[in-house]
Amino acid sequence: MEHVQVLIAGGGIGGLSAAIWCQRLGLSCLLVEKADHLGGQLLQIRNEIVDLPPRVYANGSALLDDLLRHPAIDAVQPRLEEAIISIDVSTRMVKTTKSDYRVDFFIAATGASPNEIPALSGCKKVLTTSFSTTAQADMLSAQDVAVIGGGDRALESASNISRFARHVDLLVRSDHLRARSEWIARLEKLPNLRVFWETEIESYEARQDRIALRLRSASNSQPAEIVVDWILPRIGVHGNSSVFSPLATFGDAYLKTDEFQRTSASEWIYALGDVSNGAPYASLSLAVGQAMKAVKHISLQIQQP
Ligand SMILES: Cc1cc2nc3c(=O)[nH]c(=O)nc-3n(C[C@H](O)[C@H](O)[C@H](O)COP(=O)(O)OP(=O)(O)OC[C@H]3O[C@@H](n4cnc5c(N)ncnc54)[C@H](O)[C@@H]3O)c2cc1C
Predict the structure, then answer these.
(1) FAD/NAD(P)-binding domain: which residues (predicted)?
(2) Measuring from atom 7 of ligand 1, which residue has the nearest CA?
């Protein structure tokens, strides 16, 4: 069984930054990434990145190209297509899809994933979360689109899409919107948008090139079915924490940490980036900063006599 000083789970910007800090502070580390590539959500960012000082990046891929050129990443040699399966809090054993490790310290940087709508499983006309309504909404020109959700992202998407689409239906599960007032005010001015309150999708059916959505609603006055060209779910995200089941969570499966990024269950398990932050604070700069704090704290633990 391999012994690892610091095992990092996740090759997004948080995990990669932690690897850089391990190199900088002279800690030996191993990074495992579930996917067959590094970058995590960076590859989904099609917008310009203006909030990771000091540079402005055209998109997430441009940032990732820069990051992967960092000499420390090459030195770490991340292991791809290897996912954490379980972690034993009492024995410090970590199981992955390829191996078992005995670790001194563990960093969970497994990020967050979009929530899914089971009733739409297998539907080919669902736009993925990486669909950018700022950069790609023109693809929906003269199409009918159902946007699902009642938060900021749903309203922003509906507003962006409405500039090109023929018609936008916003399906909201509750009887109110959770979005900021500026988005709600903008929504009210859109002539080609209608809102379905207290509405959920029950099932779907392909109709030639379009999709019929069967709706379940608290109101009798709303149609039980709509037919659209595309569906864009914007119903939030959850932390990728299911494999860390003994650790305490908050909100949508985000790992709880203290001020040094240590998780609840143990002194040797840290979490950083989106898996520990919750949707409102998900950001590149926070993940990078937390990586420094976690690894610095680990190095101070090791130095202590
Ligand atoms: C469309 C979009 C636009 C955005 N725009 C901005 C922006 O302009 N500015 C900004 O600051 N932020 C932006 N963000 C948010 C930002 O991308 C995230 O906050 C950041 O990338 C999170 O990094 P992370 O390393 O914590 O997680 P992630 O990037 O999610 O990386 C986690 C990695 O862990 C891997 N993983 C998951 N489970 C396991 C497992 N069991 N074992 C091993 N590996 C695993 C995943 O495959 C993934 O590669 C945007 C996000 C999106 C989706």
Answers:
(1) 5-285
(2) 49
